[in-house]
Write a structure and sequence with these properties.
alpha/beta; binds iron/sulfur cluster; 11 helices; 311 residues; TIM Barrel; two-stranded antiparallel ribbon; 9 strands
């Protein structure tokens, strides 16, 4: 028997419908940039959890070295066919896509935005790589086209950030959110958060949601701590295994987050699944797509979770 699911949270699909009037798909493009945790500025091996080789950035990597327009043209036919989408956003997903001089950033963003099939930009970056001139450029573009800044905050707790080898503090993220709120009101900021590190405090999800509420961010994207091959975490875990969250524990964290989050903030994703399951060491449920999806949905429904109920 089919039954109606009550809406537990503001889903990304509704936000896209409200913003663009229909199904919209992100086309991954490679900016050709790197990260301060990869080029030796802060570190060389990347953040402790990050396996760019195995991530969905794979698609973007195929286009590295190609002009932005050529990358978009190469991917669009397949996406149109496969997902039946009619609206597209250029997605600078992998690495730190504001980690360059303004002239270069302007050139790649404007090239993507001027593609006739592209309705806007999604730009992934780190909170320590958005100086004011970059924010001002984003705001200038956002007054002409849709701009979403995907900000990899991961945690608002310093012990976790240190353990994840992020190379920036929680205060750095708060400063970035503050400056974005003040200088870039047209930019749709979406904050990426990761829960399940052994260093997380029991209040990590609740506190993170309440911080987002203060800065007028538009969206949040959640993922669980995953231990993937070829990462610092994998090496640590093999030397001395540490606990990761069970699916039930993670669902509880997601519920805490949602209940403390303003109902005006959309949720783009509640968990991640490993792109290459054989490379996911833990937690095992990260290898599946539908098991965590259904479990988290049922958990939220059974608990009567409502976004913002405890904010
Ligand atoms: S998590 Fe982001 S900032 Fe860190 S190494 Fe990976 S792409 Fe770079």
């Amino acid at each position: 028997m089919q039954y109606e699911l009550a809406e537990t949270h503001y889903p990304y699909s509704r936000y896209l419908e409200e913003t663009f009037g229909g199904k919209t798909y992100k086309v991954v493009v490679a900016s050709g940039l790197t990260c301060p945790t990869r080029d030796g500025t802060l570190a060389k091996e990347g953040c402790a959890f990050c396996d760019l080789r195995g991530s969905s950035s794979f698609f973007g990597k195929k286009g590295r070295g190609l002009a932005i327009t050529a990358q978009i043209d190469a991917r669009l036919p397949e996406i149109r066919e496969r997902f039946r989408a009619t609206r597209f956003l250029a997605y600078f997903q992998s690495y730190t896509n504001t980690y360059s001089d303004i002239d270069y950033l302007r050139s790649i963003y404007e090239e993507a935005a001027s593609h006739p099939e592209i309705q806007g930009l999604c730009i992934g970056t780190r909170p320590d790589c958005i100086p004011d001139p970059v924010i001002d450029l984003l705001e200038e573009l956002a007054q002409k086209t849709y701009v979403s800044l995907e900000l990899g905050v991961q945690s608002f707790e310093d012990p976790t950030l240190e353990w994840l080898a992020r190379g920036h503090s929680a205060q750095c993220s708060i400063d970035a959110l503050q400056r974005l709120a003040e200088r870039a009101p047209h930019v749709h900021t979406c904050v990426h958060l990761m829960f399940g590190s052994p260093m997380d405090s029991p209040a990590a999800a609740r506190d993170a949601a309440r911080i987002l509420n203060r800065f007028g961010v538009r969206g949040a994207k959640l993922h669980q701590l995953m231990i993937l091959e070829h990462t610092i975490l994998a090496r640590r875990w093999k030397e001395q295994p540490f606990p990761t969250l069970s699916l039930d524990q993670y669902a509880q964290v997601v519920a805490d987050f949602i209940e403390n989050l303003s109902p005006s903030i959309y949720l783009e994703r509640l968990f991640a699944n490993a792109t290459h399951k054989e490379e996911c060491l833990a937690p095992e449920w990260s290898r599946e797509r539908w098991t965590p999806h259904n479990h988290i949905r049922d958990f939220l429904q059974t608990r009567g979770c409502r976004q913002g109920a405890r904010q």
